[in-house]
Specification:
The structure is a single chain. With 247 residues, the protein is mainly beta. The protein is built from no helices and 21 strands. Strands 3, 4, 5, 6, 7, 8, 9, 10, 11 and 12 form a ten-stranded antiparallel sheet that branches. Strands 1-2-19-16-21-15-14-13 form an eight-stranded antiparallel sheet, with no helix packed on it. Strands 18-17-20 form a three-stranded antiparallel sheet, with no helix packed on it. Strand 7 and strand 8 form a beta hairpin. The termini are far apart.
Length: 247
């Protein structure tokens, strides 16, 4: 219940903190028995769309208008691409290149993060391929040598792919070693724990369930608080020249 309009959510020119008490759900074309929380989209100036999809049992998601990445937060999706089929459970993910017909059906009530972006082709780059995996199968790496801050790269790092998606896990008290300012924009979904996020000149308490959008060059920093690790899923555009492809 709101108390006189109070919320932790905040919208500034270069960032958005969206907390679950402000989520609005909507249906979308190409999906049945699925509700979407559209966290960020081009209407706000982003170059991608990030949503949380809430599937009823048997809910289905059809082919996307752009390349698509899906991370299952809880539940189970049955993914079909042509004659191939996979079961994707919590911590599992898949990437589908633009124009690839596919469907995902919820075997049980399921929540998933969905990221969609129009593909930026690169001369002489190989074509992106369908990817299906699970975070538990990926060895994390220490960020800048800090074993208390671990990164799992969920997308391949190669010229075929124009964005990256990682999970980042912070032990209690761990923090980024610097305030970052860069050209990439981010979509971030808090999965576990909480802490303090600096966005531009503001500091926000954040916790599991919160979403953050960071525009290019937004100053950003995070430190974990509490007695349990903090973990988030984070998107960034990647491996493309800011002026676009050469003609």
């Amino acid at each position: 219940m709101h108390h006189l309009g109070a919320t932790r959510s905040s919208l500034k020119p270069d960032h958005l903190l969206q907390t679950p008490d402000t989520f609005i759900r909507t249906p979308l074309p190409g999906a049945a028995s699925v509700e979407f929380v559209i966290h960020i989209a081009p209407q706000r100036g982003a170059q991608f769309t990030q949503m949380t999809a809430e599937f009823a049992e048997g809910g289905t998601l059809g082919t996307a208008p752009a390349q698509r990445f899906v991370y299952v937060i809880e539940g189970e999706l049955e993914l079909r691409v042509g004659r191939d089929q996979w079961s994707v459970v919590g911590g599992g993910f898949f990437y589908i290149p633009h124009g690839t017909e596919h469907s995902a059906r919820a075997r049980t009530k399921t929540r998933a993060a969905v990221i969609e972006k129009f593909y930026q082709p690169e001369a002489d780059a190989p074509k992106p391929q369908v990817i299906v995996g699970n975070e538990s199968e990926i060895k994390p790496s220490a960020l800048m040598g800090d074993e208390a801050l671990r990164v799992c790269a969920l997308m391949p790092d190669g010229p075929a792919y124009d964005f990256a998606v990682n999970t980042m896990t912070y032990d209690p008290g761990a923090a980024l070693s610097m305030v970052e300012i860069h050209i990439m924009e981010h979509g971030l979904l808090m999965l576990e724990g909480g802490g303090i996020y600096r966005l531009s000149d503001s500091w926000y308490p954040v916790e599991a369930g919160d979403f953050i959008w960071m525009a290019p060059y937004c100053p950003q920093w995070f430190g974990a608080l509490g007695k349990r690790p903090a973990k988030y899923l984070i998107y960034k555009d990647w491996r493309r020249h800011p002026l676009g492809a050469a003609e």
